[in-house]
Amino acid sequence: MIEFENVSMRYGPGREALVNVSFQINRGELVFLTGHSGAGKSTVLRLILGLETCSGGNLIVRKTRIKDLSRSDLALHRRQIGVVFQDHQLLHDRSVGDNVALPLEIAEFPQREVKRRVRAALDKVGLLHKEKCPPDHLSSGEQQRVGIARAVVSRPHVILADEPTGNLDPELSANIMSVFEQFRSVGVSILIASHDNFLLSQFRHRTLTLDHGRLRSNA
Amino acid sequence: MPNSRPSVPSQAKQSLMSLLLQRHADAARQTVSRIRSGPLTASLISLVIAVAVTLPASLLLISLNLQTHLGKLNETSEITAYFPSDLPENRLSEISEHLHTQFVGIEVSYVSTALALAQLNEVGAFQLILDSLDNNPLPAALIVRTDEPSVATARKIEKVLLNLAEVELVQLDTLWLQKLLAWLRLLDSLTSALTIIVVGGLLLIIGNTVGSSVQNKREEIRIIKQFGGTDAFVRRPFLHFGFSLGAAGGILACLLTAGFGHQLGIAAKALALLYQADFVVVGLSYGQNVTMILLSASIGGLAAFFAVSRKIASFGL
Ligand SMILES: Nc1ncnc2c1ncn2[C@@H]1O[C@H](COP(=O)(O)OP(=O)(O)OP(=O)(O)O)[C@@H](O)[C@H]1O
Ligand SMILES: [Mg+2]
């Protein structure tokens, strides 16, 4: 599903964020991505989304090289991916429900379907009662869960989550993990970037460890 | 629970028609909320557009009314076109037929060079001069008379005649008509020049308004792009916004022009008393009003298109 072949990436001359990273994530697999702050976790996710391009190596998602995608194909590629951003990235001038609806509106789902799916997604993260609220009235953990609902609402092939449990207590973290687990069981590939040791030890999944942009372990 | 396998977001689930409807309903909803968030700006811009469009529209109104009404002050009008004396006669009858197919109620008579000479000979004073010439110097001429006096028709006939390659000179029977037509020509080129300036101004005003609206939505656009929004998807609500601004301006301009026409009518009535004639100012037609609105709206859409495209490119998303 996702294939890194000796991928390198630098943000500028001498600013190496990733060096020769190679790994694979299969269909229906849930993988953790860990490492110190600044190790390059978010960069891996940004590369998969096509928000950055690698400066060396090959990055293949669902059998296509991201580099080869045209502008409009890149947009279609991104619609297949549900993403949770480290800093939430919610739109503050619309309600929680409308935020969750965004990926569906972009993919031009019929209005009725949008309503139904948004409510289902919010229900999964336990925020159905906040549908009409502005995101600013939510706690940081609640905003994070809105981001998670938005990532899964379009039932994507791939889910990328950047510190999805950063602001959640163990019980909520377990809830969110079970949501991801449900998607994994129907064939979705999931990559979760986290340095939450509790999460990593409690849920045993293959873990990629980055160290200064190099892949140190894959176990 | 995820219901089934993850499904590809699919547009095929709904018909093209309902998809298009939904797209535009969405965009319209966003336009309404954008206008609601800055009602003063939107209405001020519409008013500026309206005033700008009213300028050339009013000139057009004046020109149209002059053409239809001033002709009534005159009796029949007569237009003479002169041709080289060696032009074959059958070409002249061709031209005459051509005029008959284009205009109803006209009378075209042909004055050959020989006939012209004969007519001059009757006037005794020219006899000596004419006798001293070796060949006939007089040009052939077509004289066009219109049954109903109308400046507009006279202008059209003049134009057709001037467009002929062979014609040497076109003359109208009365000086005042010639002067009027010259003024009308000036008015028309003034209208054209003003229209070009106004179109340019509208492109700038609407482009700038939409551009700053895009700038304010930069963060939103970035997030939309991250979730796979295409350029077209990002552009659509802004195109609607520009189109709506243009349309609103156009509608207001129709009202303003109608108001101007009404004022002109009051002034014309006073003038009509002096001339003991009767002229009523006719406003722009239904079609002309619709054209004005559509034109203004299209300019709005076009300006928005350029503004959004330029902005998105400058964001580098
Ligand atoms: N936009 C950018 N421009 C320049 N350098 C950047 C940019 N984004 C990240 N970097 C650098 O790339 C390296 C990897 O950053 P990245 O965000 O991937 O780390 P991370 O593992 O996600 O860290 P954290 O756990 O703190 O989120 C860091 O050294 C960072 O300084
Ligand atoms: Mg990060």
Report on this model:
The complex is a heterodimer of chains A (219) and B (317). Chain A has 219 residues and is α/β, with parallel strands linked by helices. Chain A is 36% helix and 26% strand. Chain A is built from seven helices and ten strands. Chain A has helices at 41-49, 71-79, 96-106, 111-124, 140-152, 170-185, 197-202; strands at 2-10, 16-25, 30-35, 56-61, 64-65, 81-84, 158-162, 189-193, 206-211, 214-218. In chain A, the strands form two sheets. In chain A, strands 6-7-8-3-9-10 form a six-stranded mixed beta sheet, with helices on both faces. In chain A, strands 2-1-4-5 form a four-stranded antiparallel beta sheet, with helices on one face. The longest helix of chain A is centred in the last third of the chain and has 16 residues, at 170-185. The model of chain A has no long low-confidence stretch (mean pLDDT 91). Chain B is α+β, with helices and mostly antiparallel strands. Chain B folds into two domains: 30-72 and 179-315, no CATH class; 78-172, Alpha-Beta Plaits, CATH 3.30.70. In chain B, α2 runs antiparallel to α7 (175-216) and α9 (231-275) runs antiparallel to α10. Chain B is elongated. The two termini of chain B are 35 Å apart. Mean pLDDT of chain B is 81; it is low at 1-12. The site of magnesium ion has 4 residues of chain A, from α1.
